[in-house]
Amino acid sequence: MNRDEKAAVIEEVADQIRSAEAIFAVDYRGLSVQDAANLRTRLVEAGATFRVVKNRLTILSADAAGAESLKELLEGPTAFTFVTEGGDAALAAKALAQYRRETETLAFKGGQMGGEVLSIEQIESISRLPSRDTLNGQFVGVLASPLTTLVRGLAGMISGLASQLQQMADQGLVTGESSGSAEEQVAEADAPAEAEAPAEPDEPEPEPQGDPVAEAAEKTSEESDTPSEGETE
Length: 233
Description:
Blueprint: H1 3-19, E1 22-27, H2 33-44, E2 48-52, H3 55-65, H4 68-71, E3 78-83, H5 89-103, E4 107-113, E5 116-118, H6 120-127, H7 132-170, H8 182-190, H9 212-225
């Protein structure tokens, strides 16, 4: 590797350090070329890459990226797993841990996440976490469960109300007929009832009055028939 090639590797690794969401350092002693290829394939699903670089070049890359803590891990054969933006750190750590059990290699050495240093124990804990997809599924399930319960409860209430209305309709308590508009019905209900006029008392029939001319003639006749004083029989 000439000087220009080394410079290109240093800059490339520095860029990976800067953009990685998480970095896991492992001791790769005992890992075959085929094993490394299989591991890279598994890490693709987690959005991660596996890279073996000479420690001397990695130190220069860490200096260029301002990742001083990574330099402390570069003792003995060291490989880095870079979890790229949008990748799944838990799934990448899980893949490393599983492959370690299968091949008895890949001992964790440490790493960093979000700019914070990770210990071996912390990486082990991350490897036991559910994957991001699993967590998202569980979260959706938690949200959907109360919503499903609410929907079922509302459906039951609506069904019960419909059943009660049907029973009332069957009993003739509910009809669709109306004697007029709502406004007319309200006006009729609010209008005061007309008071009945009291019955007038019966007037007595007037007594029949006679003819005044006939009465005067009758009176004159009576007077003429009456004997005057001094007359004797």
